[in-house]
Amino acid sequence: MALVAGIDEAGFGPTLGPLVVSGVMFRVEDALIHRCLWEALKQTCCRITKRKTRRLIIADSKQLYHAGGTLAPLERAALVMLAVAEFRPRTWRELVALVAPDAVSKLAEYSWYANHDAELPAFEGVGDVATRANAIRKNAREQNVEFVGAVCRPVMEEEYNGLVSRTDNKSVALQGVTLSVIDRILRGTTDRRVRICADRLGGWVHYREALQTAFPEYALQILDETAERSAYRLESTARVVRIEFVAKGEDHHLPIALASVYSKYLRELYMRSFNAYWSSLDSNLRPTAGYHADARRWLEDAASLIERHNVDRRKLVRAR
User: Fold this and answer.
1) Which end of the chain is more exposed for a tag (fewer CB within 10 A), N or C?
2) pLDDT of residue 274
3) Domain span at residue 126?
């Protein structure tokens, strides 16, 4: 069997809240490492469709969110696939501990995350998670596909500011976080053959130097560097790893689309905690999603509250 992984981010652009980079992992027959997983799981999973369907929709998080007007389709995909791998987090904190264990201790450093928790599912309309998961697990087993799980890397506001300050480039900072997720996937598995597909990072085409710096134990070969795809072969005595950075990757690879789901879902749960805390201090303060224009509105509305509570803006507001 071989490992196939997908990586994508959510929250690269906002002013408030964390950046989250996630990776998801599947095992497939070695000979089918390049197989389309939407095709393999077509009995129970599909992309965005205009028709009503009983299949689980797995697509780019932006499409999923707009598809239903609520976050339920996003949460459904995230929780059902975790249940396929026999993981059933019951609360937000259990989810963080499962997919991002290193992030649990950091919650205490922020007043707006420190004491919050919420039951999952958090949104109405998610439906029967267990029944869907059982059907997908059966379909996957018949196709010799196994969903292994998800790993996430939330970058909290103060850490994000530090990364951008040190690199003086948002895209370089994102690249570093993405490479750390790739490293976590490789260190957490022993598969001899690995294929990792990631959404292209900020328009970058050349990744050789970054990959050699991050993974010096591997011999690197450039397979392709074009506007559509940058592909590399990394080989050590123990394994062969193919890493691809694909333009609009979430439209071409189910693992990338699913990774975008986990990134967006986890970020939205962080923002629910953020808004719950500040609303508890001022019930008239309207929630924010954290993106530019609305973040400016929120910062103006919350200015006196922020000052009164002596909040360090380096922990609250992202620099870029």
Assistant:
1) C
2) 98
3) 2-273
Give me the pLDDT at residue 244, please.
97
Q: Is residue 165 domain-resident?
A: yes
CATH code (residue 38): 3.30.420.10
Name the CA dihedral angle for 293, 161, 265, 143, rounded to a multiple of 10 degrees: 130
Instruction: Pull the structure tokens for residue 284.
Output: 């008239």
Burial of 94 (0-12, 13-18, 19+ CB in 10 A): middle
Q: Is residue 306 part of a domain?
A: no
Say if 291 falls within a structural domain: no
Measuring CA to CA, how many Å separate 104 from each of 109, 195, 304?
Answer: 10, 29, 30
Asked if the structure places residue 288 within a domain, the reply is no
Question: Which helix (H) or strand (E) element contains residue 232?
Answer: strand 229-235
Q: Kindly state the average pLDDT of the residues 65-69.
A: 71
DSSP letter at 237 equals S
pLDDT digits (tens, 9 = 90+) for 182-223: 999 999 999 999 999 999 877 789 999 999 999 999 999 999
Q: How many domains does the chain have?
A: 1
Size (the chain), residues: 320
Q: Which residues of 284-303 are buried (b: 16+ CB within 10 A; e: fewer)?
A: eeeebebeeebbeebbebbe
Collapsed DSSP state (helix, strand, coil) of residue 238: coil
> Helix or strand or coil: residue 158?
helix
Tokens encoding 187? 């260190």
Tens digits of per-residue pLDDT, 131-159? 999 999 999 999 999 999 999 999 999 99
Is-contact 253 41, C-beta < 8 A?
Answer: no
CB 313 within 8 A of CB 306: yes
